Amino acid sequence: MTVTDGVPASGAPTHEAPASRAPASPPAGRERREEPVPFGPGSLLWEQMGLYTSAIAGNSVFILQVMHPAIGTVVDRLSSFRTDPLGRAARSFASVQTWVYGGRTAIEEGRRLREMHKPLSAVDEEGRRHHALSAEPWAWVHLTGFYAAVTAAEYFAPAPMNAEEQQQVFDEFLQLGRILRVPERMLPKSIPDYWEYFDDMVANTLVPHKVAHEVLGQMGQVPPNVPRPLRPAVAPLSAAAGRLGRLITVGTLPAVAREKLGLPWTAADERRLRLAGQIIGRGTPLLPERVRYMPIAYRAREAARAQERLERALAHRPM
């Protein structure tokens, strides 16, 4: 997930109807709390959202978001993605980490984001005004996250999510939506409802927005705010990272979105993406926790373990 600044090859999986979409959610009448509940140890988002690998599909999610006409227009006019792409990404990931690992600060961050986006609006080329906080685009920014979680697990985790894990992640994304003050009417009631909503949005609402093409075009380029003396040294690294980034970005888009953007995808591309995913998925669990997790996530996990140790010591103190 990000904030505003805030046709598959033969044999390749489609994102519109993967087999892993099968589990259905419990009835919509479940009890709901008025006040959002912060995340903590035991939630799957606590385990997964802080991993650096969770950010691998970040560009494809951003592209799905800016393909929405309202989001693309606001980002085009007001975002710093052209002048400070690394800074924009760092701020977005820090905000996402706060949603999951910030405790009560997550609730405050949800309110802060609403306030920050409240005045953001822009007029597109056809004279239509779009507001960042309109219900549909605000919900779309959040709800692309479940697609990203399922897709990242399919390609870059040691194993795809099973039915029980998908259900838990879906329920946690509903909880996260309430932290971000997404209108309740915009939250799908079940996993099948979600995929019906998602596929309809991709097919009938998203457009090949110029911002999406710009983001793809930036891949492989030296960021504009890198000092001139360093640019020749950075250029080969940027080009290599850009090739891998583009492969991952294009490959983790839904096939219909690729078609709208005119992005080819072959069986050989799919094989390369699967190979890269296997290397990442098998290698990541071997890394130390400090290296696997982003800083906010690592510190939160460390603090939670320290709190558990303190509580155990208090529970067994001499009386």
Note the main attributes of this structure:
single chain, 319 residues, mainly alpha, two-stranded antiparallel sheet, 14 helices, disordered N terminus
Quick structural summary:
The chain has 319 residues and is an all-alpha fold.
What does this entry look like structurally?
The chain is an all-alpha fold and 319 residues long. The protein has one domain (19-315). It is 59% helix and 2% strand. The protein is built from 14 helices and 2 strands; from the N terminus they run αααααββααααααααα. A two-stranded antiparallel sheet has the order 1-2. A hairpin with a 5-residue loop joins strand 1 (121-123) and strand 2. Helix 2 runs antiparallel to helix 6, helix 4 crosses helix 5 and helix 6 runs antiparallel to helix 7. The model is unreliable at 3-33 (pLDDT under 50).
Estimated structural class? mainly alpha
Shape: globular
Counting DSSP H or I runs of 4 or more residues, the number of helices is: 14
Strand order of the largest sheet: 1-2
Taking pLDDT < 50 over at least 5 consecutive residues as the criterion, the unreliable ranges are: 3-33
Query: Cα distance, first to last residue?
Result: 49 Å
- Give me the count of strands: 2
The residue-averaged pLDDT reads: 85
